[in-house]
Design goal:
With 389 residues, this protein is mostly helical. The protein has a domain of 195 residues. Helices cover 72% and strands 0% of the residues. It contains 21 helices and no strands. The longest helix has 21 residues. The protein starts with 14 loop residues before the first helix and ends in a 6-residue tail after the last helix. 40% of the residues are buried.
């Protein structure tokens, strides 16, 4: 099967179903038209016709037989798209899907087929034409943070199929992802980092995959200046997953990632300061990793301070990010890292202390108001650094 973009619109469904799905998409952007009660959600023609029984039957058949006929494919795509759009905005849809134990159980078993045996995906075989529908269904469960699927999703992202998919992205120049690549490299890890509040799953993955991550990221470094947004959206997740384990790693395990992050920052941070979100996520996570490493490892901190050429180039990048980057979180991290690398006098010379303080206070207040206490704690930790304080 040829590579398809995950954004491909639903085709081959009847006019009524198309109208309902388009209506759902419109409602997702218009608060006034959002579904207000469970009766309205369950009165949708798609719900009335297919949910939950027929969708569960389709998944059961897909699990046992491995193929679907034309009608089953249509039901799968229609229901998956409908649930994905509904669970983005409608609390009643979220509550309903969270209670569908049979549907969740079949979904979990299908995920296990992928993680354990590579069924349905295009790694070493043909990509199943229903994988895109399954991708949408997994995203719908992510919208409700269904914890039951986390263990089997970990199996998917620690499998050889994940490693093969990431290594298979050609020289960091891919402009789009196949459905298999999007499923393994974006949908599955994004589900985990979204739902893993205490970082226990991330730690488990990092402990198993750290050496693979070092090798895979190093494989892409020669082409870092040509990285596309598609590539960055995939490489972001290994970095994000490793971040939570940095304090517990010894120097020997931190050092390879430290070298990788330096190359990334020195080669991508000054490109297109108004770039897409994947670039922002990549840069922010790189900054977080480097801050964490030099905070908890005096050997790496001294090594960076004593490498005059690298330090000088990095400080220039950090100054540019702190002054010209549109993302305030990136500005904050760039300032925090700078404060760890230069004397206080030099830091004050390059940075307006009132503006820096205002930026930290604003970010802290926003995090508290949004209920993101871990984020607020991180901001406070950055602000209370010796040089900034």
């Amino acid at each position: 099967m040829s590579a398809n973009k995950i954004e491909t619109h639903v085709n081959g469904i009847n006019t009524l179903e198309t109208d309902v799905i388009n209506s759902c998409k419109t409602q997702a952007t218009q608060d006034a038209l959002s579904i207000e009660n469970s009766e309205q959600f369950q009165e949708h023609p798609i719900f009335q016709k297919y949910l939950p029984k027929q969708l569960s039957q389709v998944l059961e058949h897909w699990l046992s037989d491995g193929t679907l006929d034309a009608d089953q494919k249509q039901i799968f795509r229609t229901c998956a798209e409908f649930l994905l759009q509904s669970t983005k905005t409608d609390s009643n849809a979220k509550q309903w899907i969270s209670q569908q134990s049979e549907l969740i159980n079949f979904t979990e078993k299908c995920l296990n087929e992928i993680g354990a045996y590579g069924y349905y995906i295009g790694i070493g075989g043909l990509e199943d034409p229903n994988l895109e529908s399954f991708d949408w269904l997994i995203q719908a469960f992510e919208n409700v943070q269904c914890k039951q699927l986390l263990d089997v999703l970990v199996k998917c992202v620690t499998s050889r199929f994940y490693v093969d998919a990431l290594r298979g992205l050609s020289e960091g120049k891919s402009t789009s992802l196949s459905i298999t690549e999007h499923f393994l490299l974006v949908t599955c890890p994004n589900y985990i980092v979204t739902c893993d509040r205490d970082k226990s799953y991330s730690s488990k993955i990092a402990n198993e995959m750290l050496n693979h991550y070092d090798d895979l990221l190093a494989h892409f470094l020669p082409h870092v200046k040509q990285w596309t947004t598609s590539i960055m959206s995939c490489l972001f997740y290994p970095m994000k997953i490793v971040l939570s384990t940095i304090p517990s790693l010894p120097y020997e395990q931190r050092k390879p990632m430290y070298d990788i992050i330096l190359v990334i920052l020195l080669n991508t941070s000054t490109c297109d300061l108004n770039g897409e979100r994947p670039r922002h996520k990549m840069i922010y996570t790189s900054l977080c990793l480097l801050v964490e490493m030099v905070r908890c490892d005096v050997i790496l901190l001294n090594e960076l301070k004593n490498k005059s050429d690298i330090k000088s180039d990095l400080i220039k990048v950090l100054n540019d990010l702190s002054k010209y980057e549109s993302d305030e979180q990136i500005q904050l991290k760039a300032i925090e890292l700078t404060s760890l690398l230069v004397p206080e006098e030099e830091f004050r010379k390059e940075n307006n202390t009132e503006q820096v303080t205002g930026l930290f206070v604003k970010s802290f207040n926003v995090a508290v108001q949004d209920g993101k206490l871990n984020k607020a704690d991180g901001v406070l930790r950055g602000f209370s650094g010796r040089d900034i304080a």
